[in-house]
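Dig into what follows:
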Amino acid sequence: MNILHAALLGALQGLTEFLPVSSSGHLVIAEALLDPGKAGAWRGGGITFEVAVHVGTLVAVVFYFRRRLLDMVLAVFDSSRKAERRMIWYLIVGTAPAVVVGLFLSSIIDEAFHSPREAAVELMISGAILLALKWAPERLRPLSAMRALIIGIAQAVAILPGISRSGSTIAAGLYLGVSRAEVAEYSFLLSVPAIMGAAILEIPNLSQIDTTLAQASIVGACVAGIVGFLTIGWLMRLIRQGQLLWFGVYCFVAGAAFLLFL
């Protein structure tokens, strides 16, 4: 992997990690297009790079929500911060399904990352999920432990490449009637343990890092972080304005086009 490819994949990761278009699906397909015949190379042969770009996007979301996260850290030692304590509990509940899937279904998931065709089909499914938001009720219900669990199950399903994590979690929250602003924030906060867990799980598989790989990983991480930070702010505005349907159109059309091309 050269520096240009690293920058392109880093930008793709930063853009698609938070946009409801599936970062993993795009990276699997991008690898197949950039290097035909090596489907899954990003996942199977570039674990070091994968961890690096995940760390880049993790830094982006932590920095964007730094005040909110700091309040939750302080709430651990201050029982009067009840709202922050509830959010910590909701994040634990919402993260649990992904942990279960990651621990017990890792071999099935790993195989999925080697199939660009499967990623393209799942990208179309993400599109259908977002297009169906047209019929989502606007009930302004508060976030609860049960709703957090359902959103967490949606996140667990999105471990598959092509199924958007942010799209699935935001859509699940909106289908449940949670307000746009609250479900947007919860989805992004839920990404912190998800991204961190994905990176930690890959650490034992890190390969020896040579100079070229180190440079590519640093470039990819930096680009992913910068692009990711800008993307979060943009998407927060789009969610509040209810403008996610166009991402559904994109996912469906792109998935179909990739499927035909591949």
About this structure: The chain has one domain: 3-261. The CA atoms of residues 92 and 146 lie 12 Å apart. DSSP finds 13 helices and no strands in the chain. The two ends are 21 Å apart (CA to CA).
